């Protein structure tokens, strides 16, 4: 079984783009548009790494991150945000997120980070 990535973003275009990029790299990918979908996929498929957007209607990224860590304390999470809210970014790091990318991010930088962390 290959390395599995869960992409959590309420923006369809971003999910599709990231899905295509990481499938082409040989990863098994899952997509979630909201927190409930993300948690269901995490329980069922046990992804190695999660790309998590912070601003998601219904359940924000902080709450999703906490619940993902409850499901699997070792799950690797990279945060994506369109907002430069340093306090929120700091809180995600305290909760175990590896790093964050501010949108719009360089896809090559994100690919390199995923490759680095998914095999670590």
UniProtKB/TrEMBL annotation:
<keyword id="KW-0808">Transferase</keyword>
<dbReference type="GO" id="GO:0003677">
    <property type="term" value="F:DNA binding"/>
</dbReference>
<feature type="modified residue" description="4-aspartylphosphate">
    <location>
        <position position="53"/>
    </location>
</feature>
<dbReference type="InterPro" id="IPR011006">
    <property type="entry name" value="CheY-like_superfamily"/>
</dbReference>
<protein>
    <submittedName>
        <fullName>Response regulator</fullName>
    </submittedName>
</protein>
<dbReference type="Pfam" id="PF00072">
    <property type="entry name" value="Response_reg"/>
</dbReference>
<dbReference type="InterPro" id="IPR050595">
    <property type="entry name" value="Bact_response_regulator"/>
</dbReference>
<dbReference type="InterPro" id="IPR001789">
    <property type="entry name" value="Sig_transdc_resp-reg_receiver"/>
</dbReference>
<feature type="domain" description="Response regulatory">
    <location>
        <begin position="4"/>
        <end position="118"/>
    </location>
</feature>
<dbReference type="GO" id="GO:0000160">
    <property type="term" value="P:phosphorelay signal transduction system"/>
</dbReference>
<keyword id="KW-0804">Transcription</keyword>
<dbReference type="GO" id="GO:0016740">
    <property type="term" value="F:transferase activity"/>
</dbReference>
<keyword id="KW-0238">DNA-binding</keyword>
<keyword id="KW-0597">Phosphoprotein</keyword>
<keyword id="KW-0902">Two-component regulatory system</keyword>
<keyword id="KW-0805">Transcription regulation</keyword>
């Amino acid at each position: 079984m290959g390395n599995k990535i869960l992409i959590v973003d309420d923006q369809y275009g971003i999910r599709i783009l990231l899905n295509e990029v990481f499938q082409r790299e040989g990863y098994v990918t899952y997509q979630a548009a909201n927190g409930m979908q993300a948690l269901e996929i995490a329980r069922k498929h046990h992804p190695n790494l999660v790309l998590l957007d912070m601003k998601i209607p219904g359940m924000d990224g902080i709450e999703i991150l906490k619940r993902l860590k409850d499901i699997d304390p070792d799950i690797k999470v990279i945060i994506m945000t369109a907002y430069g809210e340093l306090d929120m970014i700091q809180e995600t790091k305290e909760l175990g997120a590896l790093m964050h990318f501010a949108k719009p991010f360089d896809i090559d930088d994100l690919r390199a980070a995923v490759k680095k962390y998914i095999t670590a």
